Amino acid sequence: MWSLQLRMWLLLTLLFGFIYAILTILGTQFLQISGFYFYLALSLIMMFLQYMLGPKIVEWSMHVKYIQRQDNPRLFQMIESLSARANIPVPKVGIAQIAIPNAFAFGRGIRDGRVCVTQGILNLLGDEELRAVLGHELTHIKNRDVLTITLLSVIPMLMYRIAWQFLFYGRRRDSRGGNTVLIGLAAFMFYFITNLLVLYASRIREYFADRGSVALGNKSSALASSLYKLAYGSAKMRPEALKESEGLKAFFLNDPSKARGDIKELSQLDLDKNGTIDQGELSLLQNTPVRLGFGDKMLELLSTHPNMLKRIKRLSEYRA
Asked: Side-chain half-sphere of 91: how many Cα atoms within 13 Å?
């Protein structure tokens, strides 16, 4: 737990340093303003705005609509019972109006937690699987990593949206097409650099949340099976829908853009080919070594989530 929080705060420090460096470069080059304290204050203001506006930006990007108990009693009952086991306040519950089957948590802390599911996940998972997914998301809130990932994700999320807008749409509306392309390329470069911080933070926190879900009484096989089903659900989505979630996927339980590759890895665990991973199939993986090639290791470094086989292997070692 302390290991996770320490690494998260170190990543926030790196992001603050990056924001400070960018503001200093832009200010000295274009505004001819110098001074350490000026840019320090400006950077702190930027971080404060991220803290205040981050959840709203996530809500807007994910098309979140908050619901009441009568809107979905099944979902509310699961979240309330898991929150009691986790000894945290019941978070706000929302449904994201996007088709990709997934779930996510965000907010400023334990008392400002929000747990959301997408429209696509509710009819895809059984009760045990959905409960395991919600336990994973509530653990993010309990571990206090939702604030960190929200702060870390805002800058690359905005940069990705700006890059997409200027590279693919700006030139059509602006006769200065070359300028819009340059702005788009610069935004994409900033997105890539800041996203590296998000990638690392997202990978390490997933392991902690997986373990936390099992600690809340969920079966490790239920969480493994839900990951398998989510990969199948994402693989059926249109490529355009997956691209729209590119800047948001660090929040998700799994990476939708890697769904086809994940299916190939996980299908070998589904020995009876019934579309789920049961406890017996998961136990077989516990004694099977997982070795990644150089390409897989590099791909994982550039991914928001751990390699799926490694992640399921780790799950096989957890006991409620």
From this structure: 32
Question: Does residue 320 lie in a domain region?
Answer: no
**Per this entry, what is the length of the chain?**
320
CB-based burial, 46-73: b 16+ in 10 Å, e otherwise: bbeebeeebbebbbebbebeebeeeebe
CA distance 259 to 4: 26
**Position 302 in a domain:** yes
Mind listing the pLDDT tens digit for each residue in 160-208?
A: 777 777 776 655 545 544 566 776 777 777 778 777 777 887 888 898 8
Nearest to 207, CA basis, from 142, 150, 140: 140
Residue-wise pLDDT for 57-75, tens only, equals 888 888 899 999 999 999 9
CA distance 229 to 234: 9
98 assigned to some structural domain: yes
Does pTM surpass 0.85?
Answer: no
- What is the residue range of 20's domain? 2-315
* Catalytic member of 59, 80, 128, 137: 137
Pick from 52, 266, 243: which is nearest to 154 by CA?
Answer: 52
CA 115 to chain centre: 12
Task: Mark whether 137 is an active-site residue.
Answer: yes
For the chain, where are the E strands, in sequence order?
64-66, 92-96, 103-106, 114-118
- Rounded distance, CA 128 to CA 226, Å? 9
Q: Which residue from 112, 51, 86 is spatially nearest to 209, judged by alpha carbons?
A: 86
Number of domains the chain is built from: 1
